[in-house]
Amino acid sequence: MTAIQETPAQDVAAGAGVRREALYFAVRNGKLLVGFGIAFLLFLLGFAGPLVLDAVDPNAYGTKPMSPPSGEHWFGTTTFGQDVFSQFVYGLQTTFIVGALGGGIAAVIAMAVGFTAGYRGGLVDEILNMFTNIVLVIPTLAVLLIINAYLGVRSVPAQALFIGLTSWPWAARAIRAQTFSLRTRDFVALARLSGSSTRKIIMREIAPNMSSYLFMMFILLFGGSILIASSLDFIGLGPTEGISLGLMLQNANQWSAMQLGMWWWFLPPGAGITAIVGALYVANVGLDEVFNPKLRET
Amino acid sequence: MSLRVSELRVYYRTLKGDVKALDDVSFTMRDGEILGLAGESGCGKTTLGKSLIRMDGRMRHMGGTVELDGRELPIGDDRRMNEFRFHEVSLIPQYSMSAMNPTRKIGKMVGELLGSRGVALDRAELESRLDLVELPRKVLDNYPIELSGGMKQRMVMVISTLLNPSLLIADEVTSALDVSTQKAVAKALIGFRDAGFVKSMIFVTHDLALTSHIADTIMVMYAGKLAEKAPAKVMVTAPRHPYTKLLINSLPEVGVRHADKKLSGIAGSPPSLLDPPAGCRFRARCPVAGDECGQEPPVVEVEPDHFVACWKA
Amino acid sequence: MRQYFGRKLLVYGLTFFVAVTINWMVPRFMPGDPVSSMVARAGVSNPGAVETMRTYYTNLFGFDQPLWKQYANFWAALFQGDFGISIWVFPTPVSEVIMGAVPYTLGLMIPSVLLSWVVGNWAGAFAARRRLLDNTVLPVGYVLTAMPYMWLAVLLAWGLGVVAGVFPVAGGYSFSLQPSLSVEFVADLLHHWVLPFLSLFLVALGGWAIGMRNMIIYELESDYSNYLSALGAPQRLIRRYAFRNAVLPQITGLALQLGVLVAGALVTEIVFSYPGLGSLILKAIQNQDFFLLQGTFMFIVLGVLIANFIIDIVYVVVDPRTRAGMAGAQA
After folding, report:
1. Of A128, C48, C148, C312, which has the maximum CB count within 10 A?
2. What's this model's pTM, rounded to 2 decimal places?
């Protein structure tokens, strides 16, 4: 099929060769570079920006409410005179934190469930599968609504935790399927024969063999967490302290920015979310092409 | 002459350069001949098989001609080649287990495939061929998933030969099967030839032992080149090329206990085809290599129908 | 076949059970006394009703009874369709409030979900392996699918509503009209429906187009496609088979996306003040109307479960393999 199979005498350095080849394509893949580039720029803005900004509290009321973008207020101000640019910068930060935390928690759960179910099989698999399916079918946002509304947990970490706890099932299913197919391979059988523990086999033999897949999965979970968080914020279940891009949208909507023609209030936060999530998705396609030679454009 | 391949060169385009998977290969096939094409993986046998029917995206036709029944095959031109596929050249792929569309009933799929090639389905003919390979007629109303591995293999064989192609390429068709099924498949292939469903056949395999049972002629390739081509019996009993000798020697003989006679592999590995060494490509592994092997050995007909590319033969 | 559906129904049954249990449990984990905090917030707007409310809710929660009995009562009430009384529009029963909103949500979701699925699949299949189209469909698809639902809703409302003034940006129908079956009302209803529909449709469209494109490419690389090409079958036939096979995972995808689609519909409704479940949820949260919130939750769960089951049935109808396997015809 591939040229590699047809060219002999490569097996000695096959592992290193594959990695080198991946790197070769990675630095030449436009989608990957542009995607990660945009995401990285926004990341920098979110985390380095607050250091440069003079505004300490992005929610501080200002003296010039409802003013359009100007040299003083790059993105204009809100009805209360808050500087939209400061809010945007701090909001980016919150968004990245929610994405990393929520996506990270979801990825950990997905891996725990997926590896265990796929490797163990049998009854364990049946039970975990049933559990996964239940969480999969239940409408996540609705559950989050109930929990957030009643328990009143309104901090960014708590929000990320709940998102992580509910958004893992599809990833767990994918990992389970992959593990299932790796389980019967020779190198895993060898490790099992040599008496390695299940944990060790999964960590040393199975996980590294699908590391690229796991990484791409994390990116999707990351983007998904950001979108869910923004919906929660928008409904009014966002963090009570600080600011996030979703909260900015909620405020803009609540104070009729649209009807008042204050486009500078609702354009940046949505564009920020779209840019981060879109850039990550595009980077993901790029990664897929790097790891998956069949998809490369020839 | 049914098939005449002359000085065929097919390269793979890769990042590091051209992989010369098929480098100046010439041979001919008679009508009714079954040619066993053998060699290690990476020797170019699969590339040769693919070149004759459909190159994949990375393969490039770099020179040489292929003539089938006196007409030149446009093997480098995917579109023009279509006219010959199925009607003149057909393929039983390595992946017979998954070669049929999983969501179509087999009979319907065959009808649609034939229809797309402008041929009406002759149900009676199809059924008689099913009988020949001992498939029940009702498989036409089944989905592929309902057939066993062996049944799928036979079904694909029937489909591929339905238009009585002149040349059939059977690509590693037996490698996924158990020994008894291998025998049955081999028998069926010979039956197809004897019944005139296919004029001639190239049987690509790495299993030299099996090849010797079904092929009339065996061609051994090494590193993108022809090493030796001879009638099957001659090839097994009196090979001339040192590579072929080693291959034949490494075959376990029936009745010989392995303790008595050690199985010998061939030390070393084939050269890289990115930048193959000058001269004989087997030189580095050859037990009898000498100075003259720095020159490329020509393919010589040492006796009728027996071709060898070796200075020492 | 029976086993397949049996399994599915078991999952859905368990899911429903879990959802109801969450619904029952969460208020009991709430810090403090839920009744007084609820009544206190609601009481400001309606002082006269405070006492009635307090007795009613204390009885309803039944905190004086043992836990298992509270749980059993909860289920009993549920099966009688009793979701409690709304605080926001006291004393209307929650089920009545929800029933008034459900048609709007369904009227928005069903057309947008189905249409985006059909059009998205078509666009993705058409673009796959056609470089020029692919280079347009793919980026547009990614931008759409990365957009938060409410943001596209805001953009559309602002552009086509506020600035261009072509469509109304709030409500399910004009305030000046009374719901009736007159031509005028229906036209007004449709007029208000266009923007929320379009917004939901567009965001979902991107995801389906991308999914289909990737699936088709995968199918075109598959063994059966290669075999057909080797036998000289025209691209038309190969693409037709690939499409047919790629649609199957997209059907499963629809089931997986239901939760996201519901969430999208909810926030879109909020942007347009569309009188569906989304706006209801917003009102419930703002007014601390927990019964309304819980009732809505149950309705959404039920709706998603029913939709899942319908998709399961469709899948069996469309994928011959499930039927062949189920008939036990395995050779």
Report:
1. C148
2. 0.84
